[in-house]
Design a protein that fits this description.
- It is a single chain.
- The protein is an all-beta fold.
- It has one domain (5-130): Immunoglobulin-like.
- It is 0% helix and 41% strand.
- It has no helices and 13 strands.
- The strands form four sheets. It has a five-stranded mixed beta sheet, with no helix packed on it. Strands 1-3-8 form a three-stranded antiparallel beta sheet, with no helix packed on it.
- A hairpin with a 2-residue loop joins strand 5 and strand 6.
Amino acid sequence: MDVTLRYHLQAESSYIQGAPVMVGFSVENLSSVDVWILKWYTPLEGIKGKIFEVTCDGVDIPYEGRLMKRGNPEKDEYARLYPGESASAKVDLASVYALPACKECRLKFKGRIHDAVLDQREVPRAAEAHLPVDVPGNAVSFSIARG
């Protein structure tokens, strides 16, 4: 399957401890064809699992949010991306990570789309038929000041 996707994270340079830490996420279709991507385990559905790597001053910060048990997806859990199109979302890291005051927090998306489909007739696909795609992208850094 010839699918080329890229993600991009955006963050402020600093946040206040105890306040929301809103970060932006987008995924762009760099392919020459339409692609339907499953939103599961991406910020496009919110934060519903260990989808980020978070380190603050070199210490791994554990995910404290809920974990989802999944069956088969519904059609509306896919996003259609035309060639060159992006889908984006904003999420609050502080809602699922206990972020300490620090000089540098580094955030990276784990970089995987759990199913990418090129033929709309195949949407939705049963979980055992999913074709995951690794997606490259950037990491962002920011500081967190005491509140």
